[in-house]
Amino acid sequence: MKKLGMHFSLLLAASMLGGLSPSLAAEGLENHARIAETARAYIASRHPWQQMKTKITVQSLDPRTKLARCPVKLEAFLSAGAKIKRRTTVGVRCASAKPWKIYLPVTVEAFAKVMVARHPIAPNTDISERDITWSQRDISALGYGYLRSLGDRGGYRSRRSIAQGAVLTPNMVEASSIISKGQRVQLNSSTGPVAVSMAGIALQNGALGSRILVKNLNSGKQLEGVVESENIVLLN
């Protein structure tokens, strides 16, 4: 009896290691766990958040679903034109003499630290470190994007009111002005190998990289240029 019990235990262990429960193995049916793992592994190696901490969840198959045990390696695939997103439907197929395929919803949660408003921020406010805090969020669910820094020179200014605890998104902010209307600036112009600099006055506020109107102090002409730094405007 001891030998019989040991023999049964070994068969059970071998069956489980092979990805099949004893009942499914006996019936020649595919194990749902093997199908789910095929879909999970496919998404895990291809989703767009590879450098982040992620959680991948595969929706369980209906327990009543019965598919013939596949004698070859299962293949995962996406429908034509489909892209991997937070929630993606993944196909799994058996390319054997008796082929079959099935589709499973797979969800990816990707976590990263994002900027969150520490307190309510009024419109047209220059945003600084004292206005924000950092919080780990599932960025795959942030349909409007998110910000992970205060930006380059000049930083950001709020476009509208931002509620306390809100994740800061690109549509909530704009680049802060680094040149102010009425400010004296240097106007640089280059035509081929010749570069010319002249004094000017900014006629508008300007953020880094934005186009503003300026006035040439020598000629009095109104010109348009691109803000290159805190006091330089590059003329066309």
Report on the structure:
It is found in: Periplasm. Residues 1-25 form the signal peptide. Residues 112-174 form the SAF domain. Keywords: Bacterial flagellum biogenesis, Cell projection, Cilium, Flagellum, Periplasm, Signal. By secondary structure, the chain is mainly beta. Helices cover 15% and strands 37% of the residues. It has helices at 2-17, 22-27, 32-44, and strands at residues 53-58, 75-77, 87-94, 100-117, 126-127, 132-138, 156-158, 173-175, 177-179, 184-191, 194-202, 206-207, 211-216, 222-227, 232-235. The strands form four sheets. Strands 1, 2, 3, 4 and 6 form a five-stranded antiparallel beta sheet that branches. A five-stranded mixed β-barrel has the order 10-11-13-14-15. Strands 5-7-8 form a three-stranded antiparallel beta sheet, with no helix packed on it. The N and C termini lie far apart (94 Å).
Can you give the mean pLDDT? 85
Strand content: 35-45%
Per DSSP E runs of 2 or more residues, the count of β-strands stands at: 15
So what's the overall shape?
Answer: elongated
Give a short account of the largest sheet. 5 strands, antiparallel
Helix percent band: 10-25%
Please describe the topology of this protein.
Layout (H helix, E strand, L loop, with lengths): L1 H16 L4 H6 L4 H13 L8 E6 L16 E3 L9 E8 L5 E18 L8 E2 L4 E7 L17 E3 L14 E3 L1 E3 L4 E8 L2 E9 L3 E2 L3 E6 L5 E6 L4 E4 L1
Parallel strand pairs: 10-15
Antiparallel strand pairs: 1-4, 2-3, 3-4, 4-6, 5-7, 7-8, 9-12, 10-11, 11-13, 13-14, 14-15
